[in-house]
Amino acid sequence: xxxxxxxxxxxxxxxxxxxxxxxxxxxxxxxxxxxxxxxxxxxxxxxxxxxxxxxxxxxxxxxxxxxxxxxxxxxxxxxxxxxxxxxxxxxxxxxxxxxxxxxxxxxxxxxxxxxxxxxxxxxxxxxxxxxxxxxxxxxxxxxxxxxxxxxxxxxxxxxxxxxxxxxxxxxxxxxxxxxxxxxxxxxxxxxxxxxxxxxxxxxxxxxxxxxxxxxxxxxxxxxxxxxxxxxxxxxxxxxxxxxxxxxxxxxxxxxxxxxxxxxxxxxxxxxxxxxxxxxxxxxxxxxxxxxxxxxxxxxxxxxxxxxxxxx
Length: 311
Description:
This protein is an alpha/beta fold. The protein folds into two domains: 2-174, NAD(P)-binding Rossmann-like Domain (Rossmann fold), CATH 3.40.50; 178-306, N-(1-d-carboxylethyl)-l-norvaline Dehydrogenase, domain 2 (Orthogonal Bundle). It contains eleven helices and twelve strands.
């Protein structure tokens, strides 16, 4: 099977290296002028160095990919989809492997129903340097599926099996959209506060003040979930919070959010997380004061770190 990995950052580097090592034909699509020949991997899934193939233009592809992996940050989704738009008229399918709300919906508009796979990725990878990635934590299998239910389940199970055999724990789930929202809730509660206070997930949960903020983020998120009739595994914010603090936080208590590195560079995925909650709430005439305040704090920190605001 042939793969095209669009966005060779931490996540994309992991997929490109593991798929290539497993013997699959995988190519990374880089930004113009970038060069990548080797990826060094270390961390919880082992250490190895892998020669890889990467190009900075679709015109340099020698074969049409069977599956395109979209692994860019959410703020680059529209640009990435525009760059791969020529493949819309091919037989290639697209798998969205990104954080936050809205990426899958944008991909559907470009590639159409029956051609987009949604995945929920809950392992952590950190780009130590260009060509060097570290897998730091894994909370669960990658989950993939088709929220619309029009794609063949056996084929989706086959795709999940390929990733699993390549060394990336993956399974097929029909209710993948619920898994995505589980991750959105998790990220909204932890990522921005971890980036603002520069603390681990465990430290945020232990501090009574940040814990109160996290509770409010989750409670407001469930107002949106109810108003928008979004299906989740949880019938209330209280049931989710119990799961969150007892099952989700402990395995990742020593983890810092990737948003911490992102905000230091002046650009984060906050618009696809708490920002998306705020936008969905406004459409329904709701206000989310805690989420909106956290959104503004991250936006302010982005501006300071990007050099756009002078102190």
